[in-house]
Design brief:
Layout: H1 14-17, E1 44-50, E2 77-78, E3 87-93, H2 96-103, E4 111-118, H3 123-131, E5 134-135, E6 138-139, E7 144-148, E8 168-175, H4 182-189, E9 194-202, E10 205-206, E11 215-219, H5 235-238, H6 248-253, H7 265-272
Parallel strand pairs: 3-9
Antiparallel strand pairs: 1-3, 1-11, 2-3, 4-8, 4-9, 5-6, 7-8, 9-10
Length: about 300
């Protein structure tokens, strides 16, 4: 005779029959410690004239020249970038807030470049740069562009390639964007490739008095607080969220020319069988699918 076998409940697992134990409290999360804010006297801003073919970083596995070869101050970081084959002004700081402010796209800090290009651009091509040109990553914002006299700058090593049959000219270009190799792409777009690019100024800071590889330390500027207030909605937009008077509903239902077909057969059957004197009663579920209209009931269904 077979021995009786225990049966397991279909609705409950063996684990459900076990005595419940209290859940272990979650371990408290410890926030990462914040770095103490620098005292005003300890905040620094360095202006560096970055030489040609120097990487805008402090380390390089390939052994190329980096900022470490020119900056000995500890805890200093670049605020922005400058291409390896470009020269000129680079800002560095030990103040994280200043670094973030200088690199924020919304700040639109103007940057001035001295650009040596092939040929002599016409006024029409300069006007195109001022209005904005279409690059592969979109239109550029309006920029400043003019032909300038050759600046008294240091010779580049190695020198630029020159062709006897093609003259060169210098442009002063001011932009408020920071796209990858933007100035070079802008001049190439108008048919005048860049031969040499020097960043002369960032905002009010300039290269004046700095030879290639030299830096100057300044007290970091005081930062104006960012605005945290949100703009209040206009009266026209605020009116779109106001409650609609109860009297508008029957006027909307009685308008001629409206599509008064029911949403579904289920709603129609409930409406026709309503005992409220022939007036259709809302089924609740059907009317919740479409929010009430706002604004003038006589307006068109299409958005302007």
């Amino acid at each position: 005779m077979k021995s009786p076998r225990s049966r397991l409940s279909v609705s409950r697992s063996p684990r459900d029959n076990a005595p419940r134990t209290a859940a272990k409290p979650a371990a408290p999360r410890h926030a990462a410690p914040r770095k103490p804010e620098l005292a005003p006297a300890d905040r620094k801003l360095l202006l560096l004239n970055k030489p040609y073919m120097v990487l805008c970083q402090f380390t390089d596995e390939a052994g190329r020249e980096t900022l470490k070869d020119y900056i000995k101050e500890p805890g200093i970081y670049a605020a922005g970038r400058l291409d390896r084959d470009s020269e000129g002004l680079l800002l560095l700081t030990n103040d994280g807030k200043l670094q973030a402010r200088l690199t924020q796209p919304g700040e639109k800090t103007p940057k001035t470049y001295w650009v040596q290009v092939e040929g002599i651009p016409s006024e029409e091509k300069l006007a195109a740069l001022r209005a904005g040109v279409e690059l592969n990553d979109g239109m550029t914002l309006p920029a400043g562009a003019r032909i300038m006299d050759e600046p008294a700058v240091w010779p580049r090593n190695p020198p630029i390639r020159e062709r006897k049959e093609i003259p060169t000219s210098w442009l002063e270009i001011k932009i408020i964007e920071g796209r990858n190799r933007q100035v070079r792409r802008m001049t190439a777009h108008i048919g005048h490739p860049t031969l040499r690019l020097i960043r002369y100024a960032i905002g009010d800071w300039t290269l004046d008095g700095l030879a290639p590889g030299e830096s100057r330390c300044l007290p970091a500027p005081e930062l104006a607080p960012l605005s945290t207030s949100r703009p209040r909605p206009s009266s026209s937009r605020a009116g779109a969220h106001t409650a609609k008077p109860a009297g508008d509903a029957p006027r909307r239902a009685s308008q001629p020319g409206r599509d008064e077909r029911p949403r579904s057969t289920h709603v129609t059957e409930r409406a026709t069988s309503s005992p409220t004197g022939g007036k259709p009663r809302s089924s609740g579920r059907g009317t919740a699918r479409r929010p009430a209209r706002t604004g003038n009931p006589n307006s068109s269904d299409k958005e302007s």
